[in-house]
Each structure stands twice: as structure tokens, then as C-alpha cells.
Design a protein that fits this description.
By secondary structure, the protein is α/β, with parallel strands linked by helices. The protein is built from seven helices and 14 strands. It is globular and about 50 Å long. The structure holds zinc ion (2 copies).
Length: 255
């Protein structure tokens, strides 16, 4: 697998951090993990093969995670690069995903799901096991963030695994869900004294890392209060027992 960070930021406009979006290249195909508003531009900027994207995972419906979904589908509908495409695009997310796409459509009569290639939208329940793409095993976990918010665990045919929390409050069981992952891609919204329960601060994230014992932790969804901080250094003060990397837009990690 290879992970490319498209957006390491949040809903707060930031000059260096786009809203949440990550591109994952697997032996089964490519997956877009969340679709923050800038993802359409960021995919092109990173020279990724967006016309052939195989699947989209939507963790929850906050606009810093879905703001680019309708624009992406509007793009594939009208761009010359996708005119000859016939292979299907899968879109996965929690309950309400179909309603959200209908609402986008109704706002401008876009017919976003009516394209030259089939689009299949699948709503997934928490604690579900399914194949996200052929040979790419997936599991979900309900996170304490919104009603529909889900963490995702992906395992390829070679056994390499990535766990993506997306936005979440602290839940002990999330550490168990991520146990032994090659990469634990975690939100770490705040450094300390988090203003709301529905996100993680560094101490929370490091407790989860200690429980999960992954090979590597990648911290993303970084609010501007992290600007200028030595995030990895601060993380190591909590003795997480593994390498901790701070996400930056454009970072590429081979797993
Ligand atoms: Zn968010
Ligand atoms: Zn959120």
C-alpha cells in the first residue's frame, strides 16, 4: 500500500493544510479516504490517476470530509478524461450517504450518479466486515463523533493493514480495533485541553497508540493550534512505543 496525504487539515481554512482527504494505493486498486473540499484539485496536483479511482470512503458527513465529493462526481461526469471510463466506482459510508448524495443532486439537478460508468453507493453499518474492493478486506467501527461516523480498517491480500479513525472522540475500544496495524492514521485535532469531547488531543491519541501497538502512527486532522509545533517530538514525550509522524499535505508513505 501507499498512502498519499491530500489534506492534513480541518474545516478551518489554512494555507498549508487542505481539509481531510487521503489517497490510498493498494494491490486491489485506489481508494480515496474522505473527500475534503480541496481533494479534486489536490489529486490533480499530486498527479494521481483520479479518472481511474476505484473507491471512495466517506467517514462521516461533516463538510471538511465531504465538501469535495459532489465536485469530484461533477468533474468525472464532465471531464474528457473519464468519457471512456466503464469500470465502476464504489462509494462507501455510513447510514445517510444515499440521502446526502440525493440532496447534492436536488440542489442543482446534477444527476451525479448518472455517468458513463456505473457508480455503486453502499451504506455500511458499524462492526461490519466487507470487501471494499476485491481482495481488500474492510471492517468498520462506530466512533464517538457523529451518529454515522465510522473508523475503517483495511487489510490487503498480503496482510498489510491501515486503520483510519477519521474524526473521533476517545474510545478505549478504538485502540483494540487498530491493534497491530501497519499504519494507524489517527486524527489529532488538538494538542491539549481539547474544547470538545468529539475529537482527540495528543494524550488521547498516544493512549490509543499504546493500546494498538501499530508499526507507525500518522497524525492528521491538525487544527492551526499545531502550527509551528514539533508534533512528533511532543508525541514521543508520551512514550507511544512506535514511530509517530505528523501528516503534511503531499506526504507519501509506503506500507
Ligand atoms: Zn473533520
Ligand atoms: Zn467531523
Amino acid at each position: 500500500m501507499e498512502l498519499i496525504v491530500l489534506g492534513s487539515g480541518t474545516s478551518v481554512p489554512h494555507p498549508l493544510r487542505a481539509a481531510s482527504a487521503h489517497w490510498l494505493e493498494t494491490s486491489s486498486g485506489s481508494v480515496l479516504l474522505d473527500a475534503g473540499a480541496a481533494c479534486v484539485h489536490r489529486m490533480a496536483q499530486e498527479k494521481l490517476d483520479w479518472p481511474k479511482l476505484d473507491a471512495i470512503w466517506i467517514s462521516h458527513f461533516h463538510l471538511d470530509h465531504v465538501g469535495g465529493l459532489a465536485p469530484f462526481l461533477f468533474g468525472t461526469k464532465h471531464a474528457p478524461q473519464t468519457r471512456g471510463r466503464r469500470k465502476p466506482l464504489m462509494i462507501y459510508g455510513g447510514y445517510g450517504l444515499k440521502k446526502l448524495l440525493r440532496a447534492f443532486d436536488e440542489a442543482g439537478n446534477y444527476k451525479l450518479l448518472d455517468q458513463s460508468f456505473p457508480i455503486e453507493v453502499r451504506e455500511v453499518a458499524p462492526r461490519t466486515k466487507f470487501e471494499l474492493l476485491p481482495g481488500l478486506a474492510a471492517q468498520t467501527f462506530s466512533t464517538p463523533h457523529t451518529r454515522e461516523s465510522l473508523a475503517l480498517r483495511l487489510t490487503d491480500e498480503g496482510g498489510t493493514s491501515l486503520v483510519y479513525t477519521s474524526d473521533t472522540g476517545y474510545a478505549e475500544a478504538l485502540g483494540a480495533f487498530a491493534e497491530g496495524a501497519n499504519l494507524f492514521l489517527m486524527e489529532c485535532s488538538f494538542w491539549r485541553d481539547k474544547p470538545i469531547e468529539a475529537h482527540l488531543e495528543l494524550a488521547d491519541a498516544m493512549r490509543l497508540a499504546k493500546r494498538a501497538r501499530p508499526q507507525k502512527v500518522l497524525l492528521a486532522h491538525l487544527y492551526p493550534e499545531w502550527d509551528g509545533a514539533d508534533i512528533s517530538g511532543e508525541a514521543q514525550k508520551h512514550k507511544p512505543g512506535c514511530e509517530v509522524i505528523a501528516a503534511t499535505d503531499g506526504l507519501r508513505l509506503k506500507l
